[in-house]
Specification:
The protein has about 150 residues and is of the alpha+beta class. The chain has one domain. The chain is built from one helix and eleven strands. The strands form three sheets. A five-stranded antiparallel β-sheet has the order 1-2-3-4-5, with no helix packed on it. It has a four-stranded antiparallel β-sheet with strand order 6-7-8-9, with no helix packed on it. The chain is elongated, with a radius of gyration of 18 Å. About 20% of the residues are buried.
């Protein structure tokens, strides 16, 4: 993802969970570095210029500065307490008691799980695997295009 503001272009860099861990400007200069704990608390934030206005962070979620919470499309995540502000509309699985807590974030396991939209927790391996598969298909498509030299623009 990129962001354009005040005549500058910044490029986001993500880790496998989807956390924004760095931002680079059009001159390839690092203008932001971030580190988070498993529950989304910011451990390190080093920003320059317009990167300080970046609203995206942990797992790629949008941070709402006014209320101090992440917005996950379906509901807000309270990073101070590690729970959602409102109850999940899905009652959970009968055979999975941990899924029946309507306020719990990432099945109470943010090291292995992520909740991209505030509806269902997903294993990080599945999310990374799917993104890897999409990248593989893109590479295959480019490599087989008229037998040309392998090339890919990311």
């Amino acid at each position: 993802m990129i962001i354009k503001s005040k005549g500058q272009t910044l490029y986001y860099h993500y880790n496998p969970r989807g956390d924004v861990f760095a931002m680079i400007d059009q001159n390839r200069e690092v203008v932001a570095n971030y580190e988070y704990d498993a529950w989304s608390n910011v451990l390190k934030s080093d920003t320059k210029g317009i990167a300080a206005e970046n609203p995206f962070g942990y797992a790629g979620y949008m941070y709402d500065k006014e209320i101090g919470m992440y917005y996950l499309i379906a509901r807000y995540y309270n990073l101070t307490h590690g729970v959602f502000l409102s109850v999940d509309s899905d009652p959970g699985d009968k055979d999975g008691p941990i899924t029946q807590n309507g306020y719990m974030y990432a099945d109470n396991n943010p090291v292995m799980m992520v909740d991209p939209d505030g509806k269902w927790a997903k294993a990080i391996v599945v999310v990374v695997g799917y993104k890897g598969y999409k990248l593989y298909k893109k590479i295959q498509k480019v490599q087989t295009y008229k037998g040309k030299i392998p090339h890919m623009d990311i």
